[in-house]
Write the C-alpha cells for this entry.
Amino acid sequence: MAALIKLKEPIPASGRGKRASNIYRVAAEIMCHKGYGATSMNDIAEAAGLTKAGIYHYIRGKEDLLFEIMMYAMDRVEEGIVAPAKEATDAEERLRTIVERHTRSVIEGVGAVTIVLEEMTALTPAHRKVITARKRAYFDFIRQTLEQLAAEGKLRNVSPTTAAFSLLGMILWICRWYRRDGKITPQAALKDYLEIAMNGVLKTEKGSFQTVMSTMVQDMGISAKGARE
Amino acid sequence: MAALIKLKEPIPASGRGKRASNIYRVAAEIMCHKGYGATSMNDIAEAAGLTKAGIYHYIRGKEDLLFEIMMYAMDRVEEGIVAPAKEATDAEERLRTIVERHTRSVIEGVGAVTIVLEEMTALTPAHRKVITARKRAYFDFIRQTLEQLAAEGKLRNVSPTTAAFSLLGMILWICRWYRRDGKITPQAALKDYLEIAMNGVLKTEKGSFQTVMSTMVQDMGISAKGARE
C-alpha cells in the first residue's frame, strides 16, 4: 500500500518532479476558481513563478496539463483518502475518514484538484477512459460504504447513490466559495462540513455519531468560537 | 409579486419570447453537462432545432447568450423559489420550500440554469456586476433563513454561511450526475435530497422535521419503493 500523505505538509518530491507537482497544484487551484476554459497558460506560468517559455519545459500544453492534473488528483485521492479509509473496518468510521480527508484536502487547497476532474470533455478519448475508470472506482468505494451502512440500519432511508452524490457535491463545491483568509477558519469549516455531511446521510442516534464527533473535535483541538459570521 | 411558475409546466411565453426562453433552457442544459467552454453555438442550435443562421436571429453570440441565460435563471430563482419561500413565515418551512423548489427545478432540468451562474469570468464587467448582485441577494436570503433557525435553536451548531454553501453545493451538483431516464425517479431523488439537506443542517427532533417530511411525502404521493439501486 502506498505511503499516506500528510495533507498539511508539502508532497515529498524533488527536482523536476517536485516542480511539476507544484505546477499541477497551482494550475488546479486557478482552474478551480476561474474555470478551465478561462484559465490560460500565462495565468499558470505567472502563479507558478515561471516564464511562459519556462512552463513549456514541464508541460506540453493545456490539454496535457489537464490530464496530468487529473492523474495527480486521482493519485492524491487514492493515497490520501481511499487508502486510510480502507484501514477502517467499521463503515461509519470509514465514511467519516472519507468525508474528513476529502473536505480537508479541498479546504487546504491540495484537493482543489478534484473539481478539475469535471472537465472531462476537454480530454482526448483515450485519456478520458483512464480518468473515468479511476473516478468510477472512487465513487463506487463511497457508495459501497453507504450500502454497508444501509445494511447495518445506520443510513437514513435514502438511496446510497443519491447520498454519495450529495456528499461529493457538498465537498467539491467548497473550492467555489471558501477562502482560507476569510472569516471562517479551516478548522471551523471542516467541523461544520463533517457535522452536516454525517448527519445528512446517517440516522442520528445518541452514542453513535455525536460521540465520535465530540471526541474527534477534542482530538483536533478545534474551537467553535470565532469563526461565525 | 410576480405570478409563481409551476415547475412542471412550460414557462408561459409566446412568439419570439417563447422561442428565446426555449433556447436558454436548452443551452443551459448543454452547458451544465458539457461545461460552458466546451459548448458551441452549433451544439445549441442543433439541440434547439435551429440552423446556425437561425439561432443568430435570437442571440448575438455565446457571451450574450450566457448573460441572457443568467438573467433568465435569476428570474426563475426569484419567481419560482424566493417568492413562494417568502410566503412562509416559519423559518423551517421557508428553508424546506427553498430546498424543495431549487432541488426540483434542477432535477426537472429547468434549473439546470443555476449552475451556469458559476461561469462569471466569461461575462463583461458590467454584466458581472448585475449577476453578482442578484446571486448575492439569493444567497443572503438562504443565509438569513438559516440565521433565523439558529436564533430559534433549530440549526445544528454550524455557521449559517457554511450551511448555506453546503446546501447550494449539494443541489447544484445534481445536474452533473442526475439523469431523468436513469434508475432513480425524480420523486425519489427529490425525497432523498430533502431528507439529506434538512437533516444535515437542522437538529433532528421528534415532532419537528420528521413530521413535516412524512406529511409532505404523503401529500406528494411519493413512494420510496422502486428507485433504489
Chain A is about 65% helix and 0% strand.
